[in-house]
Amino acid sequence: MKSEINYCLRVLLMAGCLVTPPLALSACADDEIKRPAVTDPVMPDLGPEAAEGTISLSQMETYTPFTAGTGAHSYRIPAMVTAADGSLLVFCEARYNSWMDKSYTDIVVRRSTDNGKTWSEQTNLTGSANGGGYAFMDPTPVADRTTGRIFVFCCRWVKSDADATKTRAYMISSSDNGATWSDPADVTDQVIVPGCFSSGFGPGSGIQISRGRRAGRLILPSRQYNGSASKGFAVYSDDHGTTWKVSSEVLGGESQIAECGEDRLTVNIRKGTDRYSSFSKDGGQTWTAAAKDGGLLSFESGCHASVCSGGGNMVFYCGPKGGAKSSTHDNRYELMLYRSPTGAQGWTRSQLLYDLAAGYPDMTLLGDGRLAIVFEAGPEKGFITRSSRPAGWMCLDVLILPREVADYGYWFE
Q1: 411 and 96 Cβ atoms separated by less than 8 Å
Q2: Which domain holds residue 161?
Q3: Number of C-alpha atoms within 13 angstroms, CB side, residue 177?
């Protein structure tokens, strides 16, 4: 009987149907009523995790939509979304002459209609606005499941110039699930706070809130520079991308937003060597003070990582474990997947997915419920740090995991 009750609770949790009991009302004003803090979700006792069965890494599928040396020197900083029609799209930076930041770069995309088995030809999204003098960086797409529209934000830098006061924010959009694209449009005045300059979005993908009071909202992280320091914000739209607003400030750094329960968002932030988390209960308009997440790995230099909702209160985190540097390679390697069944409040399961050079992952749930991960992959322990790398040395790989990964009752063997 206990196992049957636990199973029912688990099903309700994954569906996001469990809520906390109503609080007894008093004569005080609504804003004085004591409620659980947004960072302390009330969770049922689901029994032992992963008690139903195990998953094998042999069930994981691997595809490679981009390989260095084919069309560009390097492809970096991937992002991935699932469109309203189920298409899978991978965006990245095409760095034509070097793998290094702020070299001549465009944003490109490839699209798959069969969950990664085959891919369209590469489409250049920013080439019409780039004659070779700019680096369009940090593609951050967000897909609208209601309209089929996709919006891709990016930051335009002057090539080989790290002066953030010369940057502009751009957006490219599609109205047909990524089959065709608009010309890039300068949206700096819409999404950058007065007195600040764009220093990047995400990277990775934004999200559309799926439930609760702000269901339908499109939201993504934005990094902005005020002349002396980097600041973090969220950019969001409540009218399917017609207009955009900017949230209150949150800790600045490479970051990603995920749902972590009904009316709850989390943003996971790279700051120095550590990971920080902040939470919102108003759809990302305001954020709690960011706090270090001691349950996630820290290593020298750090790296961008990804968070993604698994449904209900479940959240995934994916990033490199890291380790020691060598004289020729950096310390970004061993791609790890973490799972939290409690709304990014404690990570109870982890799994090594790839043991060589790995960085800048992004995640999305496919239409069939499987978890897809795109990341920079290399064939050695860490990325080569010298300015030249052999042709084809680095690629962007997509891993597709079985749907049981998002089931509390299952985990890897």
Answers
A1: no
A2: 53-412
A3: 13
